[in-house]
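Sample pair:
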Amino acid sequence: MKRRDFALGSAALATLSQMPVAALAQSKKDTLILGMTLEPTGLDPTVAAASSIAEVTHYSIYETLTKINSDGSVSPLLAEKWEVSPDLRTYTFTLRKGVKFQNGEPFNASTVKFAFDRAAGEKSTNKDKRTFANLSTQVVDDYTVVLINKEVDPDFLFLIGQSTAVIVEPKSADSNATKPVGTGPYKLDAWAKGSSVTLSKWDAYRNAAAVKLRKVTFKFISEPAAQIASLLAGDVDAFPRVTSRGVDQFKNNPKFQVQMNGSRAKTILAINNKKKPFDDVRVRRAIAAAIDRKAVIDGSFDGNGAPIGSHYVPGAFGYVDTTGVNSFNVEKAKALLKEAGVTTPLEVSLILPPPPYARQGGEIIAAQLAKVGIVAKLQNVEWAQWLSGVYTNKNYDMTIISHVEPFDLANFAKPDYYWGYDSKKFNDLFTKSNNAPKSSDRAKLLGDIQRLLAEDSVHGFLYQPQWTTISNKGVKGLWKDMPVFVNDLGSLSWS
C-alpha cells in the first residue's frame, strides 16, 4: 500500500470514529437472515414440486414474465406489457429490453420459447407440465413473443407468474438445481446442506440501485421450539410462515412485529382414490365424517385456520361453503364403512412430511379415525421421501399436506395426479367454468365444482391456514398476504 493511500484510509477512519454509533450501525444494515421450515431439495423450481424451492429462488434468482403481488394481483416483470385476444387464448407479450442472465447471456423471446418448450417437453418433470403442453410459443422478434393456449384459462397471467414458469437460460438450464442462473437481483453465494443457503446481490442486475440488501441467508429450522428460540436470540431477523405456537410472547414485545398472513392454501388429508378400499366413495365419506376439523385446527395450527369442505377457500372468487356436506359425525362414519362392506379394524398408512401441521395433525386425525375402526399407521418421512414415495410413485393410502397454489383445481382433471381422481363430470364442469363468458356464470360453475369435490369426498378437506410471520421491528417489505409462497427479497430493507 502506498503511504498516500494509508493516509487517506486513516482520515476516513478518523471521520468514522466521530460518527454516532447509531449511524454506524444503520450503515451496516444490508444483510438479513430469514428462517425457513423446510430445506429445498434443489434450486430449480421447474423440475420439482416443493414450494421451498420457490421460497428461496422465485423473484430473487429467477424471474417470470408476470409478477404475482401480495394482494394476488398480477403486474409486469420480464414482460413490459401484453395484449389478449377476444377469444382469450392468444397472448402477445412485449418483453423488457436490456435484460441479461447472470452468466451474461441475453434475455429475449427465444429464451422464453426455450423455457416454455422445455417445461412441456417429454422429459419435463415440471408440476405444471400440462399447462405448458397446452401452449404454442411463437417468436415474432427479439422482444415480442406470442403464447397461444389450446384452452381458455381465466387465470393464465397468474399461472405464468408462478415459479414453474421462470425463464431459464438454455446453456445453464440443466445445472440450475445446484448452480442456478436467472435474471433476478440475487445469485447463489453458498449452500451449506442441512443448514443454510446464502444469496448475494447481483451488481449487474438491471435495477440494482433499488435492491437494498447485499446478502440474504436462509436458515433452515424445522423444530417449532427452535424456530421461536432463534427469533428470541436474534439468530434470525424474520421468519415467514413460522409455527404458530409461541406467537403470543412476540405480540407485546416492542422488538418484534407479528403479521397474520392470509393465504389461498388448502390443508388436506389427501386420499389415494385409486387404491382399495378408497376407490369406494362411501369409504372416503366415512373418513371425512370421522374428522373433527375444529379439533385438528386447534391442535395442529393453534386455531389459525378456517374449516373447508372442498378444495377452495373463503375469500376466493366463487367460493361456496361446503363444510356441511361431510360434517363431523362418528356414527355416520361407522355406518358408511359397514355399508361399504369394510371389516374393521381397517389398517391404513398415514404418511407425514416434516412440517408441524402435518406431524401434529396426523396424531390428532389418527386418534379420530380410531374411533370409527380405522387404524392409521403413522409414518414420518423427510420431504424428499414424500416427493418420491407419495407424489411421484403414489405409494401411500393417506397423507397430510398443504396445497399452497391459489388456482389448482386443474389438478383434479389429471387422472395421473398423485391422488388418482378421475371424473368425467368434474372435467366437463371445469372446462365449462374456464370457458364461461360471464363472471357470474363462472362463479356458479365454480360452486358446482366445489360441491362435486365435496360430494365425491376426494379428500378429507381440513382447513385454510392463516400463516404467521414474525420479524425484527426494523425489517420492512415483508408480504402481508401470501397468494404464493415466495420471499420477495428485492423489496426487503431495514428501516
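Residues 1-26 have pLDDT under 50 and may be disordered.
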